[in-house]
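Notes from the 1:1 (GR / supervisor)

We went over the backlog. Supervisor wanted to see one worked example end to end before approving the batch request, so GR pasted a single chain during the call. The sequence is below; no edits were made to it. Supervisor asked that the structure be written out right there so they could see what the output format looks like.
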Amino acid sequence: MRKRRGFTLVELLVVIGVIALLISILMPALNKARQQALTTKCAANLHNMGIAMTMYTQQFGAYPGHASATSGGIAAIWPTRLRLFTNGDQAIWGCPAQEPGFEWPKGVPGSATANDSVFGYNPGEVLLLVSSTPSSYGYNDWGAWNTVFNPQRGLGADIITPTNASWTPFPCREVRVSQVKQAADMIAIADNTADNVWDFNLDPKDLHEFPGKIHSKGCNVLFCDGHVSWYTQKEITNVGSDGTTNLAQQQIRRMWNNDHEP
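Structure output shown during the call:
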């Protein structure tokens, strides 16, 4: 009978080397495919927010605004107002590429009261305090405009409290749909620089409020007409100053401002 011969050490090392080589070749491709899948899922989240925003603006004739004075402090109101048109789905506010902790808290006891229902909050839920609550996505509140209160060049920043209109820490009204001159070229919501500092808003002139770079050094951006596009962080924040005459920077500023002016 013929005696069976086992693998030699050299043969085993060759096989192991080939396997390691194949893994090293395949891993970047697999990682790239995974990142692309996360980017696509994130874009789907924003697309659903866009549908909710369209329904909101059709019903109310205005955009939801960024924040207002609630029972527990200055809180974001654009997520809760848009949630009214997502069948209560909060999962779309968590970018799948973001680290845990930046999704919308659900099922956690909070301090929202019945008076906060005008902003879309449910009594007893967590208030999305703009200066301390983490979030994956931000809202274009002021646009590319250095000003306090008026005029609002974004989609509405600090909105007057409807339940107490005589108290006006924020003397701003919601931005009407008619104020947005180029909906297809107007930034609405995007991945943000999620660092637990003003995560619910976007500002192309503030590092803490920059659109993010979580997707291949860029971010997904929802525009007011509902379409979603990808941009690098650098190109979408290259706005210069208000008086800059650089045409490329002026074009980016137009994308932030509801009057489509630089």
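Supervisor's comment: The mean pLDDT is 86.
Batch request approved.
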